[in-house]
Amino acid sequence: MLLALVLGVFLGHGAVWTRPFVLPVLALVMTLSTMAVSSQIFRSPRSLLVPALVGNLMSYLVLTGMLLGIAGLLIEDTSLWKGFVILAAVPPAIAVIPFSEFLKGNHSYALIGTMGAYLGGLILMPLIALLFIGTSFIDPLKILVVMIELIVIPLVLSRILLWTRADRWIGGIKGTLTNWSFFVVTYTIVGLNRDLILNDPLSLLPVAVIAVASTFLLGYLVELAGKVLKIDPKITITLVLLGTLKNYGLAGGVALMIFDKQTAVPATVSTIFMIVYIAWLSVKGLRKKR
Questions:
Q1: CB burial string 66-96: b at 16+ within 10 A, e below
Q2: Angle, CA 251 vertex, CA 154 and CA 243 arms, to 5°
Q3: pLDDT tens-digit profile of 117-173?
């Protein structure tokens, strides 16, 4: 990821050639990621209800509310505002699932909460985009098509791969395919915006402030609330992840497909701080074990 950022800034002229591949590689990532979700979890709807609702609340009420609230105060540029609306509208990062397990959170809660938010996103994503951007700036049909391409189709394909047991031979190259896909997306978005990054970096300061507030600050507040309400520490860890991580790759790709290159900047900058935030959570988790 960091290599893609550096190459995008200094060798970003080639990003114009990789732009058409953004949508296909994002669909590939979504397919590979949702392969980890067993079809068994859909067989007991009652046990899924609470974690699924909590996943939607954390991602679409808590995190979306903070992103749009602070962006409304700090962002004046129209393209950047649209980028934050798209970022606020997408579901949580699929990475919530593995990170929750790594940080000793509640893996089942993370799994169900994340998938619940993706299903909720099919309704909430276009509603948020239309409400805060408006039909005069965005085509509702275009949003629907992109959502089908990046959420519905990958989810269906992942079920087919699981049913045909093709996941067995894909498993060995899954990590490599995912890493290279994120490389293409990050390189493309950074490369297309290299002039802005190099010539006017101070314009990105408000974006960075929002990225820090929506991860470090919000994560601290969620953790504090978990202690006050005496929530199981493992569930609290999962709630922190659901309430601080959006699917930045999806947000950047959607912004790039629907609007212009600058609209994808909030997702790209947020990706950088997500990496730092996860590293910080990992160090923090190791300290607690000692």
A1: bbbebbeebbeeebbbbbbbbbbbbbbbbbb
A2: 95
A3: 988 988 899 899 889 988 766 667 777 787 788 778 888 888 888 888 887 788 778
| Number of domains the chain contains | 1
Rounded CA separation 245/264 (Å)? 16
CA distance 63 to 245: 8
Structure tokens at 165: 């047991």
Residue with tokens 């805060």: 132
Mean pLDDT of 16-43: 76
CATH number of the CATH domain containing 72: 1.20.1530.20
Tens digit of each residue's pLDDT (9 = 90 or more) over 169-195: 887 788 788 778 878 887 887 787 777
Domain that includes residue 149, residue range: 2-289
| Distances 118 to 112, 124, 135, 170, 194 between C-alpha atoms, Å | 10, 9, 23, 23, 31
